[in-house]
Specification:
- The structure is a single chain.
- This protein is of the alpha/beta class.
- It has 2 domains: about 350 residues, no CATH class; about 110 residues, Macroglobulin (MG2) domain (Immunoglobulin-like), CATH 2.60.40.
- The chain contains 11 helices and 23 strands.
- A hairpin with a 5-residue loop joins strand 22 and strand 23.
- The chain is globular, with a radius of gyration of 22 Å.
Length: about 525
């Protein structure tokens, strides 16, 4: 039996030792000012986070039942997943019973530890109960609500993830107010070091609003093809409450659960970061403007056009940090909604990559009759989702002398407890000559069923870096922003911020940004 040693502290290295274990060129490149490029604003995020922060959290939430997913007292959604400065976004809100309400709009970041900046308050508006749509073809629930307001994004609002805190206005002082969120992404065209891609396709795939309608609730099978979901509906409570039960995140998809700790940490550290939705990477130009793309959290559902654009970008020198897992697993093409607005529906079509025979046998009833699978996700990740799909375990170093571990003090066999979960990657692409397995070990589904994960790294054709951390929980080791709760997976949980996770991420970004 392998004895796993846990390193409880961060070993400090002097400059001479550090230069022995990491690239001097990368250190020099990271310390020099960015080259002047049209539209480049390398200090934008540092300057933005010097502004006063504000409390963005919800205080009062009323779910429709103890097992429900919605907050009908007040809930809402936006007309687009992402929007640029100067463009207009419609906001849709329903209140039951009818009530006046306000919308506080926050940009998420660090802001001295507050975690957000209040950008503006809208309203008060006169709310009304808006209709719940019937289930249509392919189990689609698609709202056609009346907008309460239209917002033109100001020119000085930086790219970022924006939350709208919806709050009812009580008629009298002896009545409670109720709250929930809506969410959108402000994107841009500026060159930047890091492109933070929100995994909002997956947020919507798991969204069960209003009753039990997601890509997983078709009575035929949990992964049945030909099921659709719409972005034209509020985000309900995250449904896997055995993983994390956080009603105070309602309306934000999975952003506050898996993605916000990375956002908070990147902006605290002053990285030159810009943000986008999954849909934005249907445009290859969106990937060409940055040095590195980060996939974060749970990035399972992709349009195949995203895949081809990312593969092309890797060939052209883009670095990718997969600080995520279960990535690029299901082919879900975008389509227009009933009103003709582009890219507002997702439909499960097939899977990425051929399943192995044991996977087909184990999950034949669950996976459904997938035909003509998409391209192999290992080509852009280095590993892939395997059976068992989920579980929990420790993230164990297998290559201690690798530059990725410089400054961490980790030795071969040392583990970061509970960091792997609840889904992961395995089956590394061993046909790729330059692929390295830098962490590997066991996970247990249900606490008993054995599985194996592998964190990998390889270089693209331009010396660019493709790093696969192989866990949805990676961001839990980076920071613990205001209101954040740690998840739990199959009897295992991460321990929160860890200097080794922070240093590994810094090392990966340093190498990625030198290209």
């Amino acid at each position: 039996m392998r004895v796993r040693r846990r390193n409880v502290g961060l070993i400090l290295m002097d400059r001479r030792d550090f230069l022995k274990t990491t690239s001097a060129a990368a250190l020099v490149a990271s310390s020099l000012p960015a080259k002047a490029e049209p539209g480049r604003q390398p200090e934008l995020i540092r300057q933005e986070n010097s502004r006063p922060g504000a409390d963005f959290q919800l205080t009062r939430v009323m779910l429709d039942s103890s097992k429900g997913y919605r907050s009908p007292t007040i809930e809402g959604y936006c007309s687009r997943q992402s929007v640029k400065a100067g463009e207009t976004l419609d906001l849709f809100v329903s209140t039951r019973p009818a009530a006046r309400f306000t919308i506080d709009l926050f940009r998420m970041g660090y802001y001295g530890g507050a975690g957000a900046r209040l950008m503006t308050q809208l309203g008060p508006f006169t709310g009304q109960e808006q209709p719940v749509p019937e289930i249509g073809e392919q189990r689609l629930r698609e709202c056609q609500w009346q907008a309460c307001t239209s917002l033109t994004i100001p020119a000085d609002w930086p790219s970022g993830v924006y939350l709208g805190r919806l709050t009812t206005v009580p008629i009298s002082a002896d009545q409670p107010y109720w709250q929930s969120y809506l969410i959108f992404i402000v994107t841009d065209d500026r060159p930047a070091d890091v492109l933070f891609q929100c995994s909002d396709n997956t947020w919507q795939a798991y969204n069960r609003w209003p009753v039990n309608e997601s890509l997983y609730t078709d009575p035929r099978a949990a992964h049945a093809p030909g099921v659709s979901v719409s972005f034209d509906r509020p985000y309900g409570l995250y449904p896997q409450t055995s993983i994390v039960n956080q009603p105070l995140s309602i309306g934000t998809g999975e952003f506050l659960l898996w993605e916000y700790p990375l956002c908070y940490w990147l902006e605290k550290e002053g990285y030159d970061v810009t943000y986008c939705a999954n849909v934005d990477n249907l445009d290859p130009a969106n990937l060409k403007r940055c040095k590195s793309l980060i996939s974060i959290g749970h990035d399972e559902y992709w349009d195949v056009r995203q895949y081809h654009n990312v593969k092309q970008a890797i060939d052209e020198g883009l670095s990718i940090l997969w600080l995520s897992a279960n990535d690029v697993y299901m082919v879900t093409p975008f389509s227009a909604n009933a009103a003709g607005a582009d890219n507002r529906r997702l439909t499960r079509e097939t899977c990425f990559g051929e399943f192995r025979e044991e996977e087909k046998e184990a999950y034949a009833k669950v996976l459904g009759p997938f035909e003509k699978p998409g391209p192999d996700e290992r080509d852009i990740i280095g590993a892939r989702t395997v059976v068992p799909f989920n579980g929990g375990g420790d993230w164990t170093c297998t290559a201690a002398d690798h530059w990725l571990f410089a400054g961490t003090g980790m030795k071969k066999g040392d583990s970061i407890p509970g960091l792997v979960g609840w889904e992961f990657h395995g089956d590394p692409d061993t046909t790729r000559a330059n692929l390295e397995i830098i962490a590997a070990g066991n996970v247990w589904a249900g606490g008993t069923r054995l599985g194996h994960y592998a964190a990998t790294l390889f270089e693209g054709p331009k010396g660019n870096l493709i790093f696969n951390a192989s866990t949805i929980f990676w961001s839990q080791g980076l920071s613990s922003p205001p209101g954040h709760l740690l998840p739990w997976s199959h009897g295992s949980r991460p321990h929160g911020p860890d200097p080794r996770v922070q240093r590994i991420t810094q090392n990966a970004l340093t190498r990625a940004l030198k290209v």
